[in-house]
Amino acid sequence: MNFQLTDEEKMVQDTVRSFAQKELKPIAADIDKNHKIPDSIIKGLAELGLFGVYIPQEYGGAGLSFLSYAITVEEISKVCASTGVLISAHTSLCANSIYEFGTKEQKEKYLVPLASGQKIGCILLTEPEAGSDAANVSTTVKKEGDYYVSNGNKIFVTNGGYRDFGILIATHDKSLRHKGIDAFILDLKSEGVELQRNEDKMGIRGTYTSVFSLENVKIPKENLLGKESEGFKIAMDCLDGGRIGIASQALGIAEGAYEKALEYAKERKQFGKTLSEFQAIQFKLADMAMHIEAAKLLVYESAWIKDNLKNGASYNDLIIKSSMAKAYASETATYVTKEALQIHGGYGYIAEYEIERMYRDAKITEIYEGTNEVQRIVISKMLLK
């Protein structure tokens, strides 16, 4: 059993951390305030190969490990959770789906620009009546000659505002539920695809969370991903990896908040002593550190399993460990940011001190890409098998 990162993974960690601290941290508050990640940051991420960390080089990626990807999202999220989820949703939910299920032609046409950062990807899965119950999608597809024609509505589309490429999940027969669902590669600039709005959110305000309507959208038949009726399987498969991405984001948020609290506790004086000299604060810091270390072990182990599926690692282990990592790391993020804000006292409630933003950003990690209640359903089913 080896808990050491490889030299390559250490290099990724150092490189991403340096970029995050130098380029991203100084403008993280502005990203939150302006609801936009600057093009210069996206360009910088692309130049470092961070939009396709584990995608093979032949398809525009960096060809590194999945653990390197988890570390990337973690380090970016320490300073800006919006940018962390930009990378996570793009990679896990869109690029990975094409990598795992796409044809060679689909990979060359769509995966290369995604993995190289020329295009930003998303998934169009959630609907007003299909959240945790993903099999209840109502967006329809009907085959007409050389095209599929789609009609419906999609909400909560992370990265949708870039209007590049997305994975569309739709049904050809709603009565069949998950057995009637297909997946398609959709160009969001296609005729009939309307971006209705980008939501105004409590946290991760720098990333787009979009609402789309689809009216008679023609999708070329060669854009079917996998086979007909495999759409639900494809969506669930990409979410298995996506949970690790969100767990990595949550871990990064928690670490960033903890580092702020630790620094503040050492500097802030009350009653003639620094806060760090009070046992009440010491215990808070100890508990925060314990939760973070436990979360990190789960996140890294899940990523390791993903890396080793072809070397005998169990896919069932990936399902259960990624669900555990997502649930535990996200709850750790909420807990640690709350305690970090408490240590800061009134200053923690002021935007200038950044903890306020981290506190807002943390909560969504318990909700998207499968609520933690759903994660517990997944975990318990696997345990009872």
In summary, what is this structure?
By secondary structure, the chain is an alpha+beta fold. It contains eleven helices and ten strands.
What does this structure look like?
This protein has 11 helices and 10 strands. The chain is globular and about 80 Å long. The model has no long low-confidence stretch (mean pLDDT 96). Helix 1 runs parallel beside helix 4, helix 7 runs parallel beside helix 9 and helix 9 packs antiparallel against helix 11. The longest helix has 37 residues. The protein has a 4-stranded mixed β-sheet. Strands 2-3-7-6 form a 4-stranded antiparallel β-sheet, covered by helices on one side. It has a two-stranded antiparallel sheet with strand order 9-10. By secondary structure, the protein is an alpha+beta fold. The chain has 3 domains: 114 residues, Acyl-CoA dehydrogenase/oxidase, N-terminal domain (Butyryl-Coa Dehydrogenase, subunit A, domain 1), CATH 1.10.540; 108 residues, Butyryl-CoA Dehydrogenase, subunit A, domain 2, CATH 2.40.110; 153 residues, Up-down Bundle (Butyryl-CoA Dehydrogenase, subunit A, domain 3).
